């Protein structure tokens, strides 16, 4: 069966995102969000004129990632932005990681376009929920108690990964076994002047209890950290169909 006009598909995604996030507290939010999720699930890499990328030509002689010190480990392609949401594509080189970070007061949707991502998701717990003090390894950074909810692999065949202001709001994204790309919607966009700045965290773990990783979900301590020195995000032009809002 021939596919619809792809410009129409990404345009419909943007229009539905505008409708959905214009009134996130409205009675129709759940229905609108489900419709947006359905549309986003249809998007494929070729719809946005993207193709998986092989290893960088500038291979690192040290045996590290081929992009190390040469190009950004992560690039962003801006598609559109309004006061209520932003949409773009993140491209991760093989072995790249977007460190654990938050989305204050925001909703989000992530759809893998190519490659495989491992996404670890966590919830912030109330300040008084801690049953024990943070471990000594916390250092001087602010500590946060969180619920480590899941760690899953996502591929282009997977449904979108969702986050809300209270559920799965913190996540870490790793490219697994090669480069990867995902379409990203955040609502509303990051805006430090309105209290929506991005904060990075490090997971604090005690001594391992055994060979197997601890079961999920489980409560954990996080410590706020500066942005990692080996993580930065470059910009690239978006090659896909134009979106007008």
TrEMBL record:
Superkingdom field: Eukaryota
Q: Does the keyword Zinc apply?
A: no
One GO MF annotation is: oxidoreductase activity, acting on single donors with incorporation of molecular oxygen, incorporation of two atoms of oxygen
Naming one, the record's GO cellular component terms include: mitochondrion
Entries under Pfam families matching the protein: PCO_ADO
Keyword set for this entry? Dioxygenase, Iron, Metal-binding, Oxidoreductase
Q: What is this protein called?
A: AEDO dioxygenase
Taxonomic source organism: Pomatorhinus ruficollis
């Amino acid at each position: 069966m021939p596919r619809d006009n792809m410009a129409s598909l990404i345009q419909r995604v943007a229009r539905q995102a505008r409708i959905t996030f214009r009134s996130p507290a409205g009675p129709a939010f759940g229905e609108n969000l489900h419709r947006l999720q359905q549309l986003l699930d249809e998007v494929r890499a070729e719809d946005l004129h993207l193709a998986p990328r092989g290893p960088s030509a500038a291979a690192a002689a040290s045996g590290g990632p081929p992009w190390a010190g040469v190009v950004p480990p992560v690039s962003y392609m801006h598609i559109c932005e309004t006061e209520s949401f932003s949409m773009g594509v993140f491209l991760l080189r093989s072995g790249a990681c977007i460190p654990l970070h938050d989305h204050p007061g925001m909703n989000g949707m992530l759809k893998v376009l190519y490659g495989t991502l491992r996404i670890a998701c966590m919830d912030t717990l109330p300040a008084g929920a801690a049953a024990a003090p943070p471990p000594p390894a916390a250092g001087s950074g602010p500590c946060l108690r969180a619920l480590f909810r899941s760690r899953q692999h996502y591929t282009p065949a997977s449904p979108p990964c969702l986050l809300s202001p209270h559920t799965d709001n913190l996540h870490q994204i790793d490219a697994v076994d090669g480069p990867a790309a995902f379409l990203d919607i955040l609502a509303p966009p990051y805006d430090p002047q309105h209290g929506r700045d991005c904060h990075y965290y490090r997971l604090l773990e005690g001594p391992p209890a055994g060979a197997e990783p601890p079961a999920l979900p489980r409560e954990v301590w996080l410590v706020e950290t500066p942005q990692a020195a080996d993580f930065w995000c470059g910009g690239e032009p978006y090659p896909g169909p134009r979106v007008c809002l």
